[in-house]
């Protein structure tokens, strides 16, 4: 990864995020594929417990005087019961059962009024815009070279109040996509909009990586805090550098043009404990 090592990135993140207030609001509990599970922990200690989902550490936050685990769930996880392990506090090791539900229909946030709000449920399959082929947006290697584990550092509380990175409605949703008879996880949002539109940081963080994409643009990784990462792909005219702290709404670059086409495209993925979740769990549609 160009610019600086992982240790330097984490130190930059810690220095930047220590100036932020404590975690304001936890995301909504929505234990479906691509969603988030918020699990209250029966730990009375002031010492933050260590929580893992499988082998992956997850974010742990203060919640009404106690602790809660915030667990990201992958797009392809099957409904059923799973185990989250907890270490620390008054017990050296315990476990909590986590029930994953099937996808539910998209529902409005009852606390957001008529203007909508955070998404409670998502459709399991995607309807593509006219003229966009399924094959054109499936790129299973697009994010495979990104190491999300560099965002795992104790004591850093992310801000879960994200904003969309562009001033445009998304064109291709997060969910399952049928390609050549097979279901693929399109586990990010794709925006089709004119090249040259500005791309903004969806939340405060530190630029943890910049590398080229197959389309000729740049891919930017922004570490937002403990276990939370954004990846924005196909940018041009990038003014930021690896290790640089960015504020929410700060420009990261411009939408790059697609080869052989007059339009542009931006892909936005959000990873929580290494799993790419629906970005609209944190941010409403623009």
How does this structure look, described?
It is a single chain. This protein is mainly β and 286 residues long. It is built from two helices and 18 strands. Strands 10, 11, 12, 13, 14, 15, 16, 17 and 18 form a nine-stranded antiparallel beta sheet that branches. A four-stranded antiparallel beta sheet has the order 3-2-6-7, with no helix packed on it. A three-stranded antiparallel beta sheet has the order 1-5-4, with no helix packed on it. The longest helix has 12 residues, at 6-17. It is globular, with a radius of gyration of 19 Å. Residues 6-24, 105-121, 144-148 and 150-155 have low confidence and may be disordered.
What key phrases describe this protein's structure?
286 residues, mainly beta, nine-stranded antiparallel β-sheet, four-stranded antiparallel β-sheet
Count of DSSP helices?
A: 2
Uncertain runs: 6-24, 105-121, 144-148, 150-155
Average pLDDT reading: 76
Written as H for each helix and E for each strand, in order along the chain, the element string is: HEEEEEEEHEEEEEEEEEEE
Give the overall shape, derived from the CA principal axes: globular
Which sheet architecture does the biggest sheet show?
9 strands, antiparallel
What structural class do you assign from the helix and strand content?
mainly beta
Helix content: under 10%
Radius of gyration: 19 Å
Distance between the termini: 31 Å
Proportion of beta-strand residues? 35-45%
Number-wise, the strands total 18
């Amino acid at each position: 990864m160009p610019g600086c090592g992982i240790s330097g990135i984490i130190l930059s993140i810690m220095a930047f995020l220590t100036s932020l207030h404590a975690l304001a609001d936890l995301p909504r509990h929505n234990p479906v594929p691509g969603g988030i599970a918020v699990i209250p922990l029966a730990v009375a200690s002031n010492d933050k417990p260590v929580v893992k989902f499988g082998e992956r550490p997850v974010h742990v936050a203060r919640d009404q005087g106690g602790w809660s685990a915030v667990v990201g769930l992958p797009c392809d996880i099957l409904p059923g019961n799973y185990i989250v392990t907890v270490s620390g506090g008054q017990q050296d090791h315990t476990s909590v059962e986590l029930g994953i539900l099937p996808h539910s229909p998209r529902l409005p946030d009852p606390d957001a009024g008529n203007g909508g709000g955070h998404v409670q449920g998502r459709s399991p399959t995607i309807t593509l815009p006219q003229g966009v082929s399924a094959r054109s947006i499936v790129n299973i290697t697009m994010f495979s070279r990104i190491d999300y584990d560099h965002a795992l550092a104790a004591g850093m509380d992310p801000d879960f109040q994200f904003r969309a990175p562009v001033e445009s409605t998304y064109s291709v949703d997060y969910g399952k996509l049928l390609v050549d008879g097979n279901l693929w996880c399109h586990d990010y949002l794709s925006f089709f909009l004119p090249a040259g539109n500005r791309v903004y940081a969806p939340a405060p963080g530190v630029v943890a990586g910049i590398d080229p994409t197959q389309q000729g643009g740049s891919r930017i990784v922004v570490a937002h805090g403990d276990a939370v990462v954004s990846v924005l792909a196909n940018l041009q005219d990038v003014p930021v550098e690896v290790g640089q702290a960015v504020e929410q709404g700060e420009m990261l670059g411009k939408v790059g043009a697609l080869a052989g086409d007059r339009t542009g495209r931006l892909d936005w993925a959000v990873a929580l404990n290494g799993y790419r979740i629906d970005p609209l769990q944190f941010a409403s549609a623009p």
